[in-house]
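name: query_chain
kind: protein
chains: 1
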Amino acid sequence: MLTRVERLREHLAQKNLTGILITNYHNRLYLSNFTGSEGLLFILQDKAYLCTDFRYLEQAAQEAPGWEIVKLDRPWTETVRKLVEPRSRVAFEAESLTWSRYRELVQDISGVEWVAEKGLVEKLRSRKDAEEIRRLREAIRLTDEGALYLQSMLKPGLSEKEVALELEFYLRRKGAVGPSFPFIVVSGPRSSLPHGQPSERRLVPGDIVIVDFGVIYEGYCSDLTRTFILGPPRSEQTALYELVLAAQERALALAGPGVAAASVDAAAREVIAKAGYGDYFGHSLGHGVGLEIHETPHLSSSSTEELQPGMVVTVEPGVYLPGAGGVRIEDVILITEQGREVLSQAPKHSFVL
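structure:
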């Protein structure tokens, strides 16, 4: 089985590239397992260098066996100049390398063609291996536990901020390293804010409460959204909840290997639009999850990607009515050879308190 670096080298060869300079933190972590905050990778067809400063040299040697560890000089381009071959054609990460650092490369290292590339490593990262899936399963298991905790903990009188804080404490005690993003807790009329941050507003009977949260476990992220209702639901709340759930179930049924990501988004959107709420579902259906909370592929109308085995994505339709409230339901799925597996198992139908 090809290693991650070997698979990257195949892509470089296809593009007639001599090597690649990796400056994105998560791409560096994915390829080398080095967790230090400072460093870069320089990968050629026959060499793999991990360059970092004095603080991390010992750590790099421990975390990245098989890599040649190089101490970063000042300026950093001096280190790269010593490693790069004259007249070579080297890629750099266009979405990671700053303009000022690019100018330093061009000015300090002559005789090299620097080629801007986007998404080379990210494409490799989109299909998870067995170890990545194991870590993702555990991260998702923790969020499932968090959802059950919310079901027992939510009550009138708590503020949105208190809910977010108590949930984070609970998940850290259960083994999470920390949150994978700032938790979203919005209630009552504020539940119409798709990415609203927790406020001092206190929950009252009859509220819709949307909680969108995730954790980091061994470097990998989870993401889950559940919508709660404090007390017996009103008919309009039930109708909106069932609509969003039907849209999600439609998308889940379609997702599978070889299916266009845009068509999965369209399937959920069609259900909501037919009910007259198309203008109130304004975000994409989902996104990849892994070392980062938002990764490729993207389930959106503009996506040109196809789902492939090993991809892990969210499916999270929502409807948001300004001033009235909203509903979002989110699960994480793994694309398999046969179809899909829903990884998050927190109950959805019983979330009426």
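note: The mean pLDDT is 96.
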